[in-house]
Specification:
The structure holds two protein chains of two kinds. In chain A, about 75% of the residues lie in helices and about 0% in strands. Chain A has helices at about 10-35, 40-60, 70-75, 80-105. Chain A is mostly helical. In chain A, helix 1 packs antiparallel against helix 2. Chain A has two domains: about 1-65; about 65-105. Chain B is flat and about 65 Å long. The longest helix of chain B is centred in the C-terminal third of the chain and has 33 residues, at about 160-190. Helix content of chain B is about 70%, strand content about 5%. By secondary structure, chain B is an all-alpha fold. Chain B has eight helices and two strands, in the order αααββααααα. Chain B has a two-stranded antiparallel sheet with strand order 1-2. Chain B has a single domain (about 45-225), classed as Up-down Bundle (Four Helix Bundle (Hemerythrin (Met), subunit A)), CATH 1.20.120.80. In chain B, strand 1 (about 75-80) and strand 2 form a beta hairpin. The model of chain B has no long low-confidence stretch (mean pLDDT about 90). Chain B has helices spanning about 15-25, 35-65, 70-75, 85-110, 115-145, 160-190, 195, 200-225; strands at about 75-80, 80-85. Classes of the chains: A mainly alpha, B mainly alpha. At the A-B interface, helix 1, helix 2, helix 3 and helix 4 of A face helix 2, helix 4 and helix 8 of B. Chain A: Keywords: Cell membrane, Membrane, Transmembrane, Transmembrane helix. Chain A: Pfam families: COX4_pro. Chain A: This is Cytochrome C oxidase subunit IV. Chain A: It is found in: Cell membrane.
Chain lengths: ~100, ~230
């Protein structure tokens, strides 16, 4: 494939992804509309979020048609944020408990 | 392509000249135009900025002992006497997705050398982006009128305002910059600048930026507004 000529794909692919994004957005809005709570709410939100994100990155940003060297250079570094998230969950919980101990909850 | 041997010690240039020589050693890692690789690098750095904002928001939300304001109620609008939860945010989400769709089709038209349609689709994308920013301005004014400040708010945990203004403000700034960026490129497409050069990659690169703005909104919508 000649990369200098750029990423060219049929418009039908974009329209399908567009429709899918609409459906997924509606579904995540309905999670709130129907007041789903607890683990069900959070897992649905995250699932819909990740599905939408992968559709945008894979098709709209053409990543599924790029070479693997570029794909990994893009997708692997942001995973480091997950380490930060894990650290901050621990830290946040600790601050919460400390505040509870000092201010009497 | 001839094989490039690393320069032997002693003959290699040193100082700034050496640094440039090392980084431009005729070794191609990514088989894409340089502009596209640079845009991706910028977007990765932006990923970390938004990643840090969202992680910071998560941390203060976990750590606060006061109740977090319910976004579903805070962002509800009264339409026809009934309170509809989060409706403005939902509309903004659909607008941004639609603008992503028109942008994707603009890239397609650009590579088919359909100059007028490409510029028109980019203009539509920019208009949708501008209306998104307008709605965000409306949302900000509404919350400010209700007494939400970065340091306090009448609904609950004080950290709510700081997270809200910081995250949506930075995202709105990205959308605004993107609107200007798209309008610039659209004018150049229409003017025939890329036709003369025979290279429309720049439209795809502008598209990458715009889709990224949409991508960030997916995470903000899920983690800030829905959580």
């Amino acid at each position: 494939m000649d990369h200098a000529s750029g990423q060219q794909h049929p418009i039908g692919v974009y329209l399908k992804v567009w429709a899918l994004l609409f459906v997924l957005s509606t579904m995540s809005y309905l999670v709130d509309y129907f007041h789903l709570q607890g683990l069900l709410r959070w897992s649905l939100i995250v699932v819909f979020m990740l599905m939408k994100a992968s559709l945008i990155v894979a098709v709209f940003m053409h990543l599924r048609w790029e070479r693997l060297a570029l794909v990994y250079a893009i997708l692997v570094p942001p995973l480091c944020v997950l380490v930060l998230v894990a650290l901050m969950v621990l830290e946040g919980d600790y601050i919460f408990l400390t505040r509870g101990a000092f201010f009497g909850g | 392509m001839t094989t490039i041997a690393p320069p032997a010690a002693g003959t290699a240039a040193s100082g700034w000249r050496g640094l440039v020589a090392d980084w431009s050693g005729d070794r191609l890692a990514f088989a894409v135009p340089w502009g596209k690789a640079m845009m991706w690098i910028f977007l990765i750095s932006d990923t970390f900025i938004f990643g840090c904002f969202l992680t910071g928001y998560m941390t203060v939300r976990i750590a606060t002992t006061a109740a977090w304001p319910n976004p579903s109620e805070v962002f509800a609008l009264t339409i026809g006497g009934a309170s509809v939860p989060l409706i403005l945010i939902a509309i903004m989400t659909f607008i941004l997705i639609t603008s992503s769709g028109t942008m994707a089709m603009a890239v397609n038209c650009a590579y088919r050398r359909d100059r007028v349609r490409c510029a028109a689709l980019m203009l539509a994308t920019a208009l949708l982006g501008a209306s998104f920013v307008g709605m965000q301005a409306f949302e900000w004014s509404k919350l400010i009128a209700e007494g939400v400040r970065p340091w306090s708010n009448p609904m609950g945990a004080a950290q709510f305002g700081a997270s809200f203004f910081m995250i949506t403000g930075f995202h709105g700034l990205h959308v605004s910059v993107g609107v200007i960026y798209l309008l610039t490129i659209a004018a150049r497409v229409l003017g025939g600048r890329y036709e003369a050069r025979g290279d429309y990659t720049i439209v795809e690169i502008a598209g990458l930026y715009w889709h990224f703005v949409d991508l960030v909104w997916v995470f903000i919508f899920a983690l800030f507004y829905l959580w």
